[in-house]
Design brief:
Layout: E1 2-9, E2 14-24, E3 29-35, E4 42-48, E5 53-58, H1 60-80, E6 108-116, E7 121-128, E8 143-148, H2 150-165, E9 184-185, E10 190-191
Parallel strand pairs: 2-8
Antiparallel strand pairs: 1-2, 3-4, 4-5, 6-7, 7-8, 9-10
Helix pairs in contact: 1-2
């Protein structure tokens, strides 16, 4: 479902979109994935319903943070609702890959989580990165809400953690990624 908000700025006599809000309810598929070689990967989040596919650009660190947040979020839900079943988080790597079209709607700035207890659906809320705006009227922020099961959400978290680990190895001395062509380690002052 697509909800568009429309705003007319009479003082400037111009028309613009305030923001676009998308609800994928319910997601038949949700994942994070990367395209490219380690060190040059571009990360995405993608969700689908029966007739809509929405893909967004996301940073690697956002995936790490999101995955950790999801796991805490699900633990808290179980603590508050002890009768609730625990999602397993099992996934098949081949089924967690994004699929065409890979045409990102926007770059993610903010990520949130919500839960609808009546429908037993979790919601991953992704908001567009906020660029500097001169006035409040110029601020625009698109939003996508991916409604999914707790099982889908936990699978996304576990897969996301595995995905980010598939990048370049980390130098144990300085904590920086080691490139395939070598690495200058400031702690050792030599190239590995």
């Amino acid at each position: 479902m697509r909800i568009l908000k429309f705003d007319i700025l009479l003082n400037n006599l111009k028309t613009r979109w305030l923001n676009m809000e998308y609800d994928l309810l319910p997601c038949t598929f949700i994942t994070v994935d990367a395209i490219g070689k380690p060190g040059q990967r571009v990360f995405y989040i993608q969700g689908k319903t029966e007739d809509t596919t929405l893909t967004l650009l996301i940073e690697k660190i956002q995936i790490q943070t999101l995955a950790a947040g999801i796991l805490r979020f699900l633990e808290e839900l179980i603590e508050r609702n002890p009768d609730m079943s625990k999602p397993s988080g099992q996934y098949n790597e081949d089924q967690m890959k994004i699929t065409p079209p890979v045409d990102p709607l926007f770059r993610v700035g903010e990520i949130g989580l919500a839960y609808d207890i009546d429908r037993d659906l979790a919601c991953l809320i992704a908001k567009e990165i906020q660029l500097e705006a001169e006035t409040e009227d110029e601020k625009q922020q698109d939003e996508v809400r991916y409604w999914c099961t707790r099982e889908q959400l936990k699978s996304l978290a576990i897969w996301g953690l595995d995905l980010v680990q598939k990048g370049r190895p980390i130098c144990p001395l300085c904590g920086e990624p080691i490139n395939p062509d070598g690495h200058f380690c400031p702690k050792k002052k030599w190239t590995q």
